[in-house]
Design brief:
single chain; about 475 residues; alpha/beta; 2 domains; five-stranded mixed β-sheet; globular
Length: about 475
């Protein structure tokens, strides 16, 4: 499991109205799927790639609102020009994928309001807004951009000033209300996590050069797409941006504000970090804006064929690259988290525990300062439960539970050393070193051994 998948493996074992770091919608979906298929790696993979499929599919049906099938397919293919969508979605993202799906669903329902104005779409738009915020908090970038875009064009103002918009607001509030109560009760932990991750409150403002560097890095996907688009379609770019399709001007405004607002955030708040992935809920508006100003009757021509070949080439090249990294790390001189031999380590650990009297793996607590390591070990040790070192240090009842059932401490031996770390001993002074588990990285002969430190926390009757 990658980092996000490990988080979901731990959080989705129990339903909560909120979790410490991220909004809860993704975990709710995983919990629902796990109740049917079990909480395991296969369930996590199916969930992730189902959402990736939905992302491209919803984008396609949204483009079908304004273009013919071949044109819509061409525009949908342009999404792979964004490394965020074509590479990062596959490599290590989850909440961001769901966020992008919800932003697209909001656009789709909003477009249906523009076209036929049925009341049901006001309600569905509100539900998608609520779920969008529950997917990831930077959905707020998209929502603010959508509101400004609506005010900026005639079709949008017609929706904004319709009394049925109150149904949209009410639907969103009903979806958000339980999680909002949880935030109040818990002191807004996930909100503070999001703010701290952006490092908005840095004590020393970065230099202007640093700010431009942050902005340039975050907008590399945007610049790359515009460059490729202009190289292939500049001759067909129409100066007259009027479009007969109702709502197209709104999407152009949505692109403008969607890309402008994060840029203003970077320069005005002068945060130390702004990641390109935070643009995920607005990046897809760029193809809408660019292709809406293009004569797409050229579909089938040489330039569109070149464009289609480029998109297909990107997909195949990324697949081959990921396969090489995964199956031939020595060839590409790179190991990733996927190469850590957690299965073999966990099976070795299970054998060690069986040799210890009254110390089987089931009902055992796995204690660590690294949730990623703990989750990947627990995936191969059914019945184990996770407790973070921080939680154990601050809760007497949790400590009593550990001493009742017993536990194991696990840590990265290369990072924290081969002896039981002092931070672990302060919390569990009775910890007994078990063994260092050293195994080679999967499919690699040149990167040495992965080292996992293990210590046991004896049961109370064993002390």
């Amino acid at each position: 499991m990658e980092l996000d998948e490990a988080e979901q493996f731990l959080n989705s074992s129990v339903f909560h109205l909120g979790y410490s770091n991220q909004p809860p919608l993704y975990n709710w979906l995983v919990k629902t799927a796990a109740s049917l298929f079990g909480l395991n790696l296969v369930t996590l993979i199916i969930m992730k790639y189902s959402l990736i499929f939905l992302f491209y599919f919803v984008f396609y049906i949204l483009t079908r609102t304004f273009w013919e099938p071949k044109e819509a397919l061409l525009i949908t293919g342009s999404l792979v020009l964004f490394p965020l969508y074509s590479y990062e979605f596959n490599r290590d993202l989850s909440h961001t994928i769901l966020l992008s799906v919800m932003a697209l669903l909001t656009c789709f329902f909003y477009s249906r309001i523009l076209i036929n104005g049925k009341t049901i779409y006001y309600v569905l738009t509100g539900l998608s807004i609520g779920m969008g915020i529950l997917s990831k908090y930077n959905y707020a970038f998209f929502l603010l951009a959508l509101a400004l875009a609506s005010i900026s064009c005639r079709e949008g103002r017609r929706v904004i000033f319709d009394k049925r918009l109150s149904l949209t607001v009410l639907s969103a509030v009903l979806v958000l209300f339980p999680h909002f109560l949880w935030l109040i009760k818990e002191g807004f932990p996930s909100v503070y996590f999001a703010i701290n991750k952006a490092k908005i409150g840095v004590s020393q403002s970065p230099s202007i050069v640093k700010i431009f560097s942050i902005a340039g890095t975050a907008y590399l996907d945007v610049l790359g797409f515009i460059l490729i688009f202009l190289l292939l379609f500049y001759q067909h770019n129409m100066m007259n941006t009027k479009n007969k399709n109702l709502g197209m001007s709104l999407f152009r405004w949505l692109c403008f504000y969607g890309l402008l607002i994060p840029l203003l955030v970077i320069f005005i708040l002068q945060g130390g970090v702004f990641r390109g992935r935070w643009l995920a809920p607005v990046l897809f508006t760029l193809p809408f804006a660019m292709f809406s100003m293009t004569d797409l009757h050229i579909v089938g021509g040489l330039r569109s064929k070149i464009f289609g070949f480029l998109c297909a080439f990107i997909v195949v090249a990324l697949l081959i690259m990921r396969m090489c990294i995964g199956f031939m790390p020595d060839l590409v001189n790179k190991v990733e988290r996927v190469h850590i031999p957690f299965k073999e380590i966990s099976l070795s650990l299970s054998s060690l525990l069986k040799d210890k009297e009254n110390f089987g793996a089931r009902d055992l607590f796995v204690i660590s300062d690294d949730a990623y390591i703990a989750a990947n070990i627990m995936a191969w040790l059914p019945g184990t439960k996770f407790i973070s070192l921080e939680s154990l240090a601050g809760d007497i009842s949790v400590q009593n539970e550990v001493y009742k059932n017993g536990g194991i401490l696990v840590w990265d031996g290369k990072k924290l050393g081969e002896n039981v770390p002092k931070s672990f001993l302060r919390v569990c002074p009775s910890a007994v070193p078990l063994k260092l588990l050293k195994l080679p990285y999967s499919r690699s002969k040149k990167f040495g051994l992965y080292v996992l430190g293990v210590a046991t926390v004896p049961k109370m009757n064993d002390k």
